[in-house]
Amino acid sequence: MGGVLWQLRCLSIVFYRCKLRENGARKMAGGDEGFSVVLEVWVVLRREEVRGRESGGGVVYTRVGTTKMKKRRLGLWLKSMRSMGESEVVLLGWPLSMFGARVKIALAEKGVKYEYKEEVFLHNKSPLLLKCNPIHKKIPVLIHKGRSVCESKIIVEYIDESWKGESPLLPSDPYLRSQARFWADYIDKVIYTVAMKFNSGPKGEEMEKARHECLGYLNVLEGELGDKPYFLGNAFGYVDIALMSYYNHFFTYESLGGFSLKIDSPKLFAWATRCMKRESVSKSLPDPQKIYDYTIVYRKNIGVED
Ligand SMILES: N[C@@H](CCC(=O)N[C@@H](CS)C(=O)NCC(=O)O)C(=O)O
Fold first, then answer.
1. Within a 10 A sphere around the Cβ of 174, how many other Cβ atoms?
2. Sign of the C-alpha dihedral, residues 44, 50, 51, 55?
3. Does domain 82-169 have CATH number 3.40.50.720?
4. Does the beta carbon of 199 lie inside 6 Å of ligand 1?
5. For the chain, domain boundaries
6. How far are the Cα atoms of 44, 45, 277 from residue 58, in angstroms, in the given order?
7. Ligand 1 pocket: which of 98, 99, 121, 142 to mutate (most atoms within 8 A of CB)
8. Where is the GST C-terminal domain (predicted)?
9. Is 172-306 a domain of CATH 1.20.1050.10?
10. How far is the CA of 119 from the centre of ligand 1 (A)?
11. CA spacing 20 to 30 A to 260: which of 62, 65, 80, 101?
12. What contacts 121, CB < 8 A, 6 or more positions away?
């Protein structure tokens, strides 16, 4: 199998118990004396990678293990199967993305283990990303049991519904849910738009306009937060994730726009400081200095920075 890029989509394991030949009797892991285990593993491969192999009704299988296995080999198989189970959740991301950070926070809040696959260059997208998000071709993408979910807010909702537990991210009440969705949508509409102005706007009048606009939006968000510890009340949740994903980018926006979250939006600053105490948040956000450095290089490349 070495080197073959095969994708595990379906794994069917068939255990047969059969009588051992007299000379082969062994006690198998979890099995009985006098019985052997025949393990057959069939793996569905990506169609393009298995051209020429045996095909059955459009699904292509290959047999990767068979015969009466000895205890040691069986142990290895079981171990590798366990680790496959762990990466049944895969996140395609990009290190500086605010949208990817949302998914990381949500998965961390739910305690979900996942495999992280990083897109290195967003202008040269991997075949996996193109396959998993053929419409927008953007990260983040969550792959869960081989099926992909796209768009960060939709992914966060999917995570909340798939890993229901003690820490729901959205309220159960339909009205409160609608309000949570409204504010998360507002955040993307206004903060993302103004962020793009900081990232690529020329200095001077344009930056001043962006600063003014941004402070206006932050003021609205402060009004919504009020005196609550988190946007949805006493518990950290969906709206906090939506806005906190931008938090480490604010170092760049403040530097370029000439404002200070701490001074100009003290309530939001206190809320952000509270959120940052959560490991799920602090460990998921990209380094502010790296975001700044990347933005400056980007600005130079597009000719708005000397
Ligand atoms: N609305 C999307 C936005 C995702 C997005 O813009 N991702 C960026 C990285 S931060 C991307 O993949 N850009 C590549 C491109 O635009 O081609 C979401 O919420 O997931």
1. 8
2. negative
3. no
4. no
5. 11-71, 82-169, 172-306
6. 10, 11, 50
7. 99
8. 173-294
9. yes
10. 12
11. 101
12. none
Residue 175 token pair: 């009205």
Residue with the smallest CA separation from ligand 1 atom 2 is: 151
Structure tokens at 119: 């897109």
Interval 177-193: pLDDT, tens? 999 999 999 999 999 99
The model's pTM is 0.75
Q: What is the longest distance spanned by two Cα atoms in the chain?
A: 89
Is the Cβ atom of 139 under 6 angstroms away from ligand 1?
yes
Q: In angstroms, what is the span from residue 140 Cα to ligand 1's centroid?
A: 7
Q: Is the CB of 61 under 6 A from ligand 1?
A: no
The one-letter amino acid at 240 = D
Instruction: Identify the CA nearest to 118 among candidates 148, 141, 151, 150.
Output: 141
Atom of ligand 1 at shortest distance to CA of 138?
A: 12
What sign results for the dihedral spanned by CA atoms 105, 106, 109, 115? negative
Question: Residue 270 carries which side chain, given as an amino acid letter?
Answer: A
Q: What are the tokens at 282? A: 């602090």
Report whether 44 contacts 60 (CB < 8 A): yes
Say if CB 102 and CB 155 are below 8 A apart.
yes
Per residue in 88-101, pLDDT (tens digit) is: 999 999 999 999 99
